[in-house]
Every structure is written in structure tokens, then in C-alpha cells.
Design goal:
Blueprint (H helix, E strand, L loop, with lengths): L6 E5 L9 H7 L7 E9 L16 H13 L2 E5 H6 L9 H9 L7 E5 L10 H4 L6 E4 L7 H4 L3 E4 L7 H10 L4 E4 L3 H9 L5 E7 L23 E7 L4 E6 L2
Parallel strand pairs: 2-7, 2-8, 3-4, 3-7, 4-5, 5-6
Antiparallel strand pairs: 1-9, 8-10, 9-10
Bound molecules: NADP nicotinamide-adenine-dinucleotide phosphate (NAP).
NADP nicotinamide-adenine-dinucleotide phosphate binds next to strand 2, helix 3 and helix 8.
Pathway: Cofactor biosynthesis; riboflavin biosynthesis
Protein name: Pyrimidine reductase family protein
Organism: Micromonospora fiedleri
């Protein structure tokens, strides 16, 4: 599939040569220090979804980077809303990506981490029931008891009335989960931005106008704007732009 839409570097070191998987992995390498990396896809006019889902925005180049980012992370953080809506399945990687992780001294699979105030989560959803690694759910102290969920996931209570995301991330780091990839959704992104916890944003811009209706990739209460410098621009053969913005 990559031959149909090869990815090449536009900035800061332009080269028309297609990036192979090793070169792409180097561009999205793990940081030396703990970090929180967001990954989103959007349309040219800033939509978070097409017909309610992100799939309509995501072409092969976005999927290629999506898979790669999962390969290099320790934990995959996702909001309960996106997990439920997008019907997340078990977080499994193919043999090639597992071999890469073994070679780099990582656990064979990343750990799924779900953020939920309500604990209105289905323990039978494959993301939990079929997980190769026991998932973690970050929730608030006053969340309702959820014994069936506790049977398939570690419930971590952090924050009185709502999840304290800084405390939750600190707990992940205490467990050795330093490189955290967050796949959204928009309310979680807004809360992480407000708490100034976002170190990096990987953004795929699909070459289409979604039109009015869909929300943005961020939502919730407003928070102060923050600088996030551009680190690279890649261009795929289908016109998708792959941007990486990061603090460092
Ligand atoms: N374009 C993209 O790359 C992309 C990526 C992801 C999602 N999406 C789209 O985004 C839409 C889903 O968005 P959404 O509005 O449901 O937002 P969301 O952020 O995915 O989910 C909101 C829910 O997640 C939990 N949550 C989020 N932030 C929390 C926090 N700070 N503390 C505690 N719980 C928190 C809460 O769950 P509880 O109700 O369980 O408490 C909340 O109701 C879908 O259309 C999906 O396709 C697009």
C-alpha cells in the first residue's frame, strides 16, 4: 500500500525519496524523557470526523503513521467516549511490530489506558475482554463501583470529582509507562491541553473539505493558547500532510 502513497520529507530536510519504515520510525522515535504525544487526523477545514467517525479522514499514509506510533509507545491513552464510539478492539500488533519492540527491549504490547469519569464501560468490549495486556482505567475517586470492569482492568482512582490527568500520568510513569500516545478524543485533548500536559502533536491533514457539522479535534472548556513549534512536515503521495509539532 505504501507504494500507492509514498511518504517523503518536505521540511526541514526536503527529499523526494520515499521514506522507508526505518526512516519513518526514526522521525517518530521515542523521546529520551517521559512524554505525552497526541495523534489526530483532520480535514483541511479542521473537522474531527466525517459522518461521525475518524475513519473517513484516514487514508493509508495516516494509517501507516498511526500503526507506527502505536509500535513505539509504552501506553495508549484514549478517552472513554472515543473507545465506546469507535468500538476499540484489543490493542494487538502484528509480528513485525512486536519483533521491533522486542529488539528495543519493550514489552511485546503497549498497555491500553482509558480515561473515564463515569466508568460506563463495557467489560465485554474486545478492548478489555481480549486485551493481551491488562488495561488500566483512570477514573475519579467517586466513580461508581464497577466489579465486572475491575475483573478485566486495573482501576486507578485519581482525583476527587473528576480525573486528575497529571496524577494519572504520574501513576503511568511510576509503572514504567513513560512514552504515552494519546489517540483522543477531543474532550480528552482539551483537558490535557488545559492541564499543560501535551508535549507533542502528530497531525495528519487529509486533502478534503469535510464541510460544516463536525467538531474540532479539541473540545471542552477554553484554556490559554500555547506555543507548539513545528518539527517536521511530510507529504504523502495522496496529498496527506503529516505534521509533527513538539515542545522539544
Ligand atoms: N480525528 C481524530 O483523529 C479523532 C480521534 C479520536 C476521536 N475522534 C472522534 O471524536 C468523537 C468522540 O469525541 P467525544 O466528544 O466523545 O470526546 P472524547 O474525549 O473521546 O470522550 C469524552 C468522554 O471520555 C471521557 N473523558 C474525556 N476526557 C476526560 C477527562 N479529562 N476526565 C475524565 N473522563 C474524560 C468521559 O467519559 P465518561 O463519560 O465515561 O466519563 C467523556 O464523556 C468521535 O466522533 C470520534 O470519531 C476523532
Amino acid at each position: 500500500m505504501t507504494a500507492d502513497a509514498p511518504i517523503s520529507a518536505l521540511w526541514p530536510d526536503p527529499s523526494p525519496a520515499p521514506l522507508d519504515d526505518d526512516a519513518l520510525t526514526a522521525l517518530y522515535r521515542r523521546a529520551d524523557t517521559p512524554q505525552l504525544r497526541m495523534n489526530f487526523v483532520t480535514s483541511v477545514d479542521g473537522a474531527v470526523s466525517l459522518d461521525g467517525y475518524s475513519a473517513g479522514l484516514s487514508g493509508e499514509p495516516d494509517k501507516r503513521v498511526f500503526r507506527l506510533l502505536r509500535m513505539v509507545c509504552d501506553a495508549l491513552l484514549v478517552a472513554a467516549g472515543t473507545l465506546r464510539h469507535e468500538g476499540y478492539r484489543a490493542l494487538r500488533l502484528d509480528e513485525q511490530r512486536r519483533a521491533w519492540r522486542r529488539r528495543h527491549g519493550l514489552a511485546e504490547y503497549p498497555t491500553l489506558v482509558v480515561v473515564s469519569n463515569s466508568l460506563d464501560l463495557d467489560p465485554a468490549q474486545a478492548a478489555f475482554a481480549d486485551a493481551p495486556v491488562r488495561p488500566i482505567v483512570l477514573t475519579r475517586d467517586g466513580a461508581p463501583a464497577a466489579p465486572a470492569l475491575a475483573a478485566v482492568a486495573d482501576l486507578v482512582h485519581c482525583g476527587a470529582d473528576e480525573v486528575d490527568l497529571a496524577v494519572g500520568l504520574a501513576e503511568l510513569r511510576r509503572r514504567g509507562l513513560d512514552q504515552v500516545l494519546c489517540e483522543g478524543g477531543p474532550h480528552l485533548f482539551g483537558a490535557l491541553t488545559a492541564a499543560d500536559l501535551v508535549d507533542e502533536v502528530c497531525l495528519s491533514v487529509a486533502p478534503l473539505l469535510a464541510g460544516a457539522g463536525a467538531g474540532r479535534i479539541t473540545a471542552g472548556a477554553p484554556s490559554p493558547a500555547r506555543q507548539l513549534p513545528l518539527r517536521h512536515v511530510l507529504l504523502a503521495g495522496d496529498g496527506t500532510l503529516l505534521l509533527r509539532h513538539a515542545r522539544h
